[in-house]
Amino acid sequence: MNQTDIALFRLIGSISRKATTDMNQLAASYQLDNNLFLYLIRIVENQGISQAELVNLMNVDKTTLSRALKKLEQEDYLLKKSNPENKRFNQLFPTEKTKELYTILSKLEQQYIQTALVSLDHSEKEVLQQLLNKINLSL
User: Fold this and answer.
1) How many CA atoms lie within 13 A of 23 on its CB side?
2) Exposed/middle/buried for 26, CB within 10 Å: 0-12, 13-18, 19+?
3) Are 94 and 79 in contact (CB under 8 A)?
4) What distance separates the 2 farthest-apart alpha carbons in the chain?
5) Quick one: CA dihedral 34, 37, 40, 41, positive or negative?
6) The model's pTM
7) Which of 1, 56, 106, 134 is the most exposed place for a label (fewest CB within 10 A)?
8) Could you tell me if 2 and 88 are in contact, meaning their C-beta atoms sit under 8 angstroms apart?
9) How confident is the model at residue 1 (pLDDT cuts 50, 70, 90)?
10) CB distance 19 to 116 below 8 Å
């Protein structure tokens, strides 16, 4: 492995941490620290998703997700319902409170993304997405 590989991988991690930190700060005013806003956005966008599917979608471990979902449920952001086809699995649904907040969170996320990617043209974004997907598949 060469220094370029190391530097590239560290840069990807740095960008991810910076984006997560910045978005957590923006969402903190809604009492959604520790990436809780990420879970809410995904649940609104994938209503009825199972916990197992959400683990895979977000690439987090089951314990981390369980703790986050418990907190969201206690704060009335989340509804868990038994899957009618398999009672052992819960489906996750947003509450009305979450749906209202989603509009704000989604705008914050879109503004952040737009600012972060402003220097890339359409073809550069496509190439970057292809390359990052290729890396993601190898992990």
Assistant:
1) 25
2) middle
3) yes
4) 52
5) negative
6) 0.85
7) 1
8) no
9) confident
10) yes
CA–CA distance, 48 with 86 (Å, rounded to integer): 13
State the pLDDT at residue 90: 86
Q: Is 85 helix (H, G, I), strand (E, B) or coil?
A: coil
Residue type, 15: I
Question: Which residues on neighbouring strands pair with residue 81, listed in sequence order?
Answer: 91
Report the length, in residues, of the chain.
139
At 78, which helix (H) or strand (E)? strand 78-82
Phi-psi region of 48 (alpha: psi -120 to 50; beta: other; left: phi over 0): left
* Cα distance between residue 71 and residue 80, in whole Å: 12
> What is the b/e burial string over 42-59, where b = at least 16 CB atoms within 10 angstroms of the residue's CB?
bbbeeeebebeebbeeee
Cβ-contact 43, 94 below 8 angstroms: yes
DSSP letter for 2, please. Answer: -
